[in-house]
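Lecture notes, unit on protein representations.

Consider one protein chain, 221 amino acids long.
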Amino acid sequence: MRIVIAGAHGKIALILGRMLHDRGEDVVGVIRNPGQADDLRAVGVTPSVLDLETADAEAVARVLAGADAVVFAAGAGPGSSTGRKDTVDRGASVLLADAAEKSGTRRFVQVSSIGADSVANGARPDGVDEVFYAYLVAKLAAEDDLRARDLDWTIVRPGALIDGPGTGQVRLATSVSRGSVPRADVAAVIVALLDAPATAGKVLELVSGNVEIVAAVRRAG
């Protein structure tokens, strides 16, 4: 398969890119900073330098041409402003979905966040600061946009992300209790989702658990 990853220099995305490359996939990684290109090449990912905050859908569609699937793993990142939460976490996802429709790339996996639905209908959870609130609002808006499209989308909402090796075991369902999950396990779940067309149209929450990843994805389908 040819798979395009948006936000390909992120911690989850770099792991994902290596996993996909190691099993023989053709992986293209979209990055804004050309200085990150060698890091992508080191894990077997072909870099494509494109700023998803300023590009148009036609330019992104050219990157997606011939792709079997696209993964949105971009994010404004820690320390970014509320404005960039909107332009990246929402706006870049909307742009990528527009490009997927233009290019005919139907399979779309979006990395969101557990708790995104806590801000639905203008709700404001207790104890959430302004920046994190803007992040959740942006993630939910990106989800809502994707859900309205005629694409084979799957939305995955990881819990609190941690570094270190994956366990290979997770809880993956439409609703799970809050918890943490290694980034490596998130990447492995995305790989399994790409192999599971039955998960299209699902919004799935993800934390560490006691079910092997392939089995958890199969159950979720």
